[in-house]
Amino acid sequence: MAIRLRRPQRGARLKPPKRIFGFKPFSKQQLKLMTWWMPGSPFQSADGVIAEGAIRSGKTVAMIVGFLFWSLLTFGTKEGQDFIIAGKSMGALKRNVLKPLFQILNALGIKYFYNRSSEAPNIQIWHNTYYLFAGHDERSQDVLQGFTAAGLLIDEVVLIPKSFVEQAIGRCSVEGSKLWYTCNPGGPFHWFKTEFVDERKKKRLLRLHFTLDDNPALSGKIKNRYKRMYPAGSVWYKRFILGQWAIAEGLVFDMFNEDVHVLPLSEIPTWFPRYGVSIDHGTTNATVFGFFGYGRGDGRVYLLNLFYYDPTQHLQGRKTDSQLANDFEKWLSGKKPQDIVCDPAAATFIVELENRGYEITKADNAVLDGIRLLSNQMHWDDAKQPSFFLADRAEMLPLKQEFGSYGWDEKAQERGEDKPTKGNDHGLDMVRYFFKTVIWPFIQETGGIEGWEIH
Ligand SMILES: Nc1ncnc2c1ncn2[C@@H]1O[C@H](COP(=O)(O)OP(=O)(O)O)[C@@H](O)[C@H]1O
Ligand SMILES: [Mg+2]
After folding, report:
1. Closest by alpha carbon to 280, among 178, 367, 377, 388?
2. Backbone angles phi, psi at 196, to 5 degrees
3. When you count CB atoms within 10 A of the terminal residue's CB, does the N or C end of the chain come out lower?
């Protein structure tokens, strides 16, 4: 039987237009990052480059362009080589590196093949192959073993385990290999600061420091908006806006102010489109439940009610899961929140609540991300309102006390780790779980926070 070929309708087979990167004239610092390896450059013989500094300062985009030209012109025209491109997670890599990379390739008219289905996802450009890795994943290290590369690009290297970075460097054994790193600063004792940034001469690395002014795509208005993301003296401001390797010291939430964040009941709306509950569970430590209202379109989140049971403060002492679940039901008194999130470590308590018919979401316990998000939401100044409030009720007292005592662990800082001190943190853990697990996805759905980078 003859097959009648139907002509496609006009335009039906046309691919959607390619997204093309809209370049603005590069800043001086971006040009340096793109060209340091070229003949005639005073840094031509360096083994690599570190672009570090403020968020959104144009580091990653300029590094992609530099890395691409260097790798293609040095190796891609001959038999080709393999390269490592790594980020903290595949998600972060796609958002921060691959998306601009593909747009840049489209803008330059360079053909590429993205092989995403294989065990080791990779991109082929000319004769080169660029393998993609997530540095957080223990398995990534196995994939790296036995691999020979002519260079690497590691985005946000401060967030990646040192073991992965060392392993990746070890793979770059091809003559002429070069190492490209970007990061926002961490603490002054972070291994990447002490062993790479400070040792850059020994390691033959060029360091390029970026500020918001080095990104030609940012208007003054947007820059000012970024500057208002965190309190001016906070560790986040120093690191992400000023680009300093600043120590995390003092109180974690030093922006907390009873006059600002605690509202009389008369100033709190009586109805919310969305309600949520968050739980931090302890057996020898405090158990805390919080009831939140949000979603009125003003970005504000209110902690409306709190339950706080500290076994060391009561004659009765420790309570069983079942007793705490009774407390929970009595406290909730039939209210039906859309979300209930719980400390992921509280496996037996979660089962107890599930057996009673509650649907429980295990909380995202990424401590630093949660703290940073809550800091941003609580930050206020003359031009920015805070987004988190507590109802002025007597039961909030233990949480208010936690705000006044929850500090950075200075011993951990000396080891290069950002960690709050252990202790009175159960109410704050509860709040943090809620923001990271419920409010963060809600913010993203409803437009996100401009300039925010999620890790
Ligand atoms: N020369 C440029 N032209 C156009 N847009 C740019 C340029 N440099 C940076 N940008 C844009 O600015 C934003 C931040 O750049 P990025 O390189 O991701 O910053 P960083 O890595 O420092 O956080 C991105 O949206 C990027 O596309
Ligand atoms: Mg970046």
Report:
1. 367
2. -115, -60
3. N
Which one of the ligands is nearest to 33 CA? 1
Enter the CATH code of domain 258-445. 3.30.420.280
From-to residues of CATH 3.40.50.300 in the chain: 28-231
Q: What local confidence, expressed as pLDDT, does residue 455 receive? A: 47
Q: What is the pTM of this model?
A: 0.89
Give the residue whose CA is nearest to atom 9 of ligand 1.
Answer: 58
Nearest ligand by distance to the CA of 209: 1
Q: Using a 6 Å CB cutoff, which residues line ligand 1?
A: 22-24, 26, 30, 55-61, 96, 100, 182, 210, 215-217
Distance from C-alpha of 77 to C-alpha of 75, rounded to nearest angstrom: 6
Instruction: Give me ligand 2 centre to Cα 57, in Å.
Output: 8
Q: Is the pLDDT of residue 335 over 50?
A: yes
Q: In what side-by-side order are the strands of the sheet with 388-391? A: 262-263, 388-391, 301-309, 287-294, 274-280, 339-342, 361-362
Judged by its nearest atom, the ligand closest to the C-alpha of residue 214 is 1
Residue range 265-322, pLDDT digits in tens: 999 999 999 999 999 999 999 999 999 999 999 999 999 999 999 999 999 999 999 9
Whole-number Å distance between alpha carbons of 277 and 342:
8
The domain made up of 28-231 is a member of CATH 3.30.360.10: no
| CB burial readout 11-36, b (16+ within 10 A) else e | eeeeeeeeeebeeeebbebbebbbbb
